[in-house]
Design goal:
globular; alpha+beta; five-stranded mixed sheet
Length: 605
């Protein structure tokens, strides 16, 4: 089942559209089911927050599981004692900006987590006499901004501009207030369980009773029975839809990548894709075996939601399972082998696709002795300005029903792995193109001079092979660089030696650590430089090599992703042209040269 727990917003930052929330306070929440009232709590140590780590956990509005209601993403999740804290980042759509403004103004204060429950332990609470259910294993699916939290007695927090919110003391609520909170909370709970949050919000505002709202929900679900709806949620137990979904997702991932399955995926890992489809229809939707097609095409189509079956009410979540596997593999493969030249680059987040301008302030004016009259003189700081923009790249790839029928699990590794490699290759080619521009002179900088030029003091007077002499000359040139003011020595320290593949062995000889028997045989560059081999440079020049500084202070290159979309992103939908699942891979990326002082080139020989 999917459970929601109330929480409160704690801090907000307008500059980055981010806020920190207490996603779970550690307190038990009182609930009611057919067996009576009970207490529900969550074990933070058993909560899986992987989706936040790989950037696929959304911030939703009122738990509505559709793309239009996604207003941001969860940047990170961490534990603090019994609490679960999270950092949220809001998007740039009109709805997201509107919600963020309400958050920043303190109008929208409550958040609620969507939790996939895997295992539950039950024991009586000796103090209250109520049953106490503890979710011992769970997965955090999403965090929602909600109008009314499930916990009516939750502490209300208030905003003060630019500062974290501070707690306010609450007077004991009146009987009328308590009843109203209970009515609103129970209506919102029912709305969350039946995915009728929009009806619940209207019911709360209009003063509708719980019984009247329950009747309205029944009528609504009956009307929607033959339409596309959201996934049905089941109760606690071994056969819950959420546990089944997580198990199937992990089993497909394990079979596709060869990795050991988790406990959730182990029961399904030996199944074929068709068997998984049949299990999903049987256990996820409660279909009888006689209602499940034996024909492989109809069976796979029903699991994907392409074929409508009698008794199948609601939309299949199987495409989301496949999409999650693809996104998981994509992120892992992308992070496993990044573009080599990114090591020398500064990283940046772009808020939109407009030109990114980097205004680089010069060095602080030199300090001068203050005269006896105590007069301080004014100084000025020079500045430099470079610019580039983020662009969108992408491709749509298809996973057909035939792949499911043929049990082609390799597609779930090959397709996203190929997309990840394509993203890495695009980033690498973009960075190499900066070094290769203008026949190896690099792009024109804001001063009208190419990146590598004698007037920049970062280009060898004549090409020469890598040697003690040429490395020492390159290091001296970088150490002798002046700041933006053209006067101040900034002492740039080289940290990387960049070569094409053709010079790898030569470079390794001059960076190797040896045991010298005299001062003359000491390798002065051992341990000083990190070797970067970029084979794409061979097509530009098989002899040209570079020294570069660490990116933190004087980085020569910079790359940027669109804020909230770092690295390749994947979206899935049921195909129209492809008889199966379409996966769209998108990369919002840009790069530019920002500082000639942090890099040196030698054309080689």
């Amino acid at each position: 089942m999917t459970e929601t727990v109330a929480a409160q917003l704690t801090t907000v930052d307008r500059a980055t559209r981010r806020c920190t929330v207490r996603a779970y306070s550690g307190a038990a929440v009182q609930r009611r089911d057919a067996s009576g009232q009970y207490e529900l709590s969550i074990a933070p140590e058993g909560m899986n927050t992987t989706r936040a780590a790989i950037g696929t956990m959304p911030v939703l509005l009122d738990h509505k599981e559709d793309s239009a209601s996604q207003v941001g993403r969860v940047v990170r999740v961490w534990r603090q004692g019994p609490e679960i804290l999270a950092e949220l980042e809001f998007g740039t759509s009109p709805l997201a900006l509107q919600i963020f403004e309400d958050v920043a103004a303190g109008i929208r204060r409550a958040v609620s987590i969507g939790l996939a429950i895997i295992t539950v332990a039950e024991q009586p609470n000796e103090t209250t006499g109520l049953r106490r259910l503890t979710v011992t294993q769970s997965e955090l699916i999403e965090i929602s901004i909600v109008p009314i939290p499930a916990d009516g007695a939750a502490v209300v927090l208030a905003f003060s501009t630019g500062d974290p919110m501070t707690s306010l003391s609450l007077n004991q609520p009146s009987t009328e207030t308590t009843a109203e909170r209970t009515r609103a909370a129970e209506i919102m709970q029912l709305g969350n369980r039946t995915n009728t949050q929009h009806l619940a919000s209207n019911a709360v505002q209009s003063g509708m009773s719980l019984d009247a709202f329950r009747a309205k929900v029944i009528d609504h679900l009956a009307d929607e029975g033959d339409k596309t709806a959201t996934c049905i949620h089941w109760g606690f137990g071994e056969d819950s839809t959420d546990k089944l979904r997580l198990g199937l997702e992990d089993a497909i991932y394990s079979r596709a990548t060869g990795k050991t399955p988790s406990d959730a995926g182990r029961p399904y890992v030996s199944m074929s894709m068709l068997d998984m489809s049949r299990s999903y229809l049987r256990n996820g939707f409660g279909l009888r075996d006689s209602d499940i097609p034996s024909d492989p095409l109809r069976l796979s189509g029903a699991a994907l939601g392409l074929v409508k079956l009698s008794g199948l009410h609601g939309t299949s979540d199987f495409p989301n399972i496949l999409g999650n596997v693809a996104a998981r593999v994509l992120q892992e493969r992308y992070l496993a082998a990044p573009a080599a030249l990114k090591q020398i680059c500064r990283k940046r987040q772009a808020q939109d696709f407009r030109t990114l301008s980097l205004v680089r302030l010069g060095e602080h004016p030199q300090l001068e002795q203050v005269s006896q009259s105590g007069e301080f003189k004014y100084g000025t700081m020079a500045e430099g300005k470079e610019a580039y923009a983020v662009k969108t790249y992408g491709k749509i790839i298809g996973l057909t029903r035939q792949a499911i029928i043929n049990d082609d699990l390799g597609a779930f590794d090959a397709l996203p792995s190929g997309a990840a490699q394509a993203a890495v290759d695009l980033e690498a080619r973009t960075l190499v193109a900066l070094l290769a521009a203008n026949s190896g002179a690099g792009p024109a900088m804001s001063d009208g001079v190419n990146l590598f030029h004698a007037s920049h003091g970062n280009l060898a007077a004549s090409g020469a092979v890598i040697s003690d002499t040429t490395l020492a000359a390159a290091k001296l040139s970088m150490r002798s660089q002046k700041g933006v003011d053209g006067v101040t020595s900034i002492d740039v320290s080289p940290a990387f030696l960049i070569v094409p593949a053709s010079l790898e062995n030569t470079a390794m000889k001059y960076l190797a650590t040896i045991t010298p028997n005299s001062a003359a045989t000491v390798n002065a560059f051992a341990g000083l430089l990190t070797l970067i081999v970029e084979p794409r440079l061979d097509a530009v020049s098989a002899t040209r090599w570079y020294l570069a500084s660490a990116p933190d202070l004087n980085g020569a290159l910079e790359y940027a992703y669109l804020s909230g979309a770092e690295g390749p992103q994947i979206e899935t939908r049921l195909g129209f042209e492809v008889d199966g699942l379409e996966m769209k891979v998108r990369l919002d990326f840009g790069a530019g040269a920002i500082n000639h002082r942090g890099i040196y080139a030698n054309p080689g020989a």
